[in-house]
Amino acid sequence: MMSVRFHSAFSTAVVGVAGGYTAFFNIIPDELRLAMAGGLGVCLVLVALFTTPPEDRRSYNVAKVSLVTLAMVLTLSYYFAEPLSNSLQTEANFVGSTTRLLTVLAAIMYFRFVPQQLPPKLSVAITVAMIAMCAITWIVQGEYVLAGIPRPFPFTGGADGIHSSGYSLISALIATFVLLKTRYLRSSVALVLILILSFLILKYEVRTTWLMLIFFFAARAVVFIQDRYGKALVLPVFAFFVSAGIFVAIIIFSQVDLLEFSSGRTSVYVERLTLILDRNLWQILFGSGAGSEILTSNVWWWEAKNSHNDFIDLTIVSGLVGLFATLSICATSLISADRQQLPVLAALIASSLVSNGLLNRPLIAILHLSTMVFAHELRRFPREQNPKSIRAEQELAA
């Protein structure tokens, strides 16, 4: 069995590489980026599969079986599905998309279940590096106009850099909140980082990041209510907020074109779901392989795109079997997550429900999910017994 020391060293290396990749994306050569992302993904998947955590073994074993099942289905769907007239159905695309998805799911399992420790200074350093690279890129490159909206030039992510930059910054913002909660970060430093990150997130105008933050704080509110008033009030309060949200949404969207507000997503979702239902039994169960999710639509007629919903894309590519395997990993992690890890997972899932979110962006997902290691400290050490506070008290007493 691998020791906590090994996992702490391994996860520190993984997060460090992911942070360097994300922050310095634009100055790293393409070949090196590919090697970093691919090598990191393979190592993380293998370590996750060959690890047995001391707790929640049954849930972790279910997740491992689901991960292997998904890998088999993705391979089966690509090599044995009826070929489509789609130039994107290539082996390179298959390897890339499969590695990306398996890396994110392995990261969910690994950071949720495996005992480990991460240096808080590493997370802060990555956040500062991303802010610095964002500012430098903005100053040097100027603004980037997307959908008629001027935004800071993306500092990471390449062709889809606006969204990747937004996701990177929102993950850093959530990490800052968690580090503040665990008292690993001074309030004054945290306030400065929160203000800068919030400003940049608003400037990029990636609406999915706003939804991630809403889900994060909504989950924290549910956890707070459960801790403060007991489980009996969670469902009624949650139902109240959902009902209130629907009521407000009806008022707002009665004045707003929902199709325009969602950038055409709602119409594309209906198109893609109709496509799935019209398929033969094999494709419904096992999908049509990597690359087959990139299609034209009545709304996005000028370019073939994915559906901007990771779960719908996954169903097209790997069918209901692949979707069930993915949901199984997410569900086992959510059900067994402690009250501080739950909001981090909720934010990740929210990103993929309404866009091509973190399930398709493994390096950013690793940075986001590694926050669960710090969040987990609140279970191992209650707030008043936080290890940093303990050390401070011991130094004061000495």
Summarize this entry quickly.
With 398 residues, the chain is mainly α.
Number of domains: 1
Major sheet characteristics:
2 strands, antiparallel
What is the oligomeric state here? single chain
Main sheet strand line-up = 1-2
Low-confidence stretches: 252-262, 378-398
What is the typical, i.e. mean, pLDDT?
A: 82
Percent in helix: over 70%
The helix tally amounts to: 17
Tally of extended strands? 2
- Give the overall shape: globular
**Proportion of strand residues:** under 5%
Report, as a whole number of angstroms, the end-to-end distance: 38 Å
Order of helices and strands: HHHHHEEHHHHHHHHHHHH
Cα radius of gyration in angstroms: 21 Å
Helix/strand-derived category reads mainly alpha
Tell me what the structure shows.
- The chain is globular and about 60 Å long.
- The protein has helices at 4-23, 30-49, 57-80, 91-113, 120-141, 161-181, 187-204, 207-229, 234-253, 258-261, 265-277, 281-286, 310-336, 342-354, 362-369, 371-380, 387-397, and strands spanning 143-146, 149-152.
- The protein starts with a helix and ends with a helix.
- A hairpin with a 2-residue loop joins strand 1 (143-146) and strand 2.
- The chain is 71% helix and 2% strand.
- It has 398 residues and is mainly α.
- The chain has 17 helices and two strands.
- Helix 6 packs antiparallel against helix 7 (187-204), helix 6 (161-181) runs parallel beside helix 15 and helix 8 packs antiparallel against helix 14 (342-354).
- It has a two-stranded antiparallel ribbon with strand order 1-2.
- The chain has one domain.
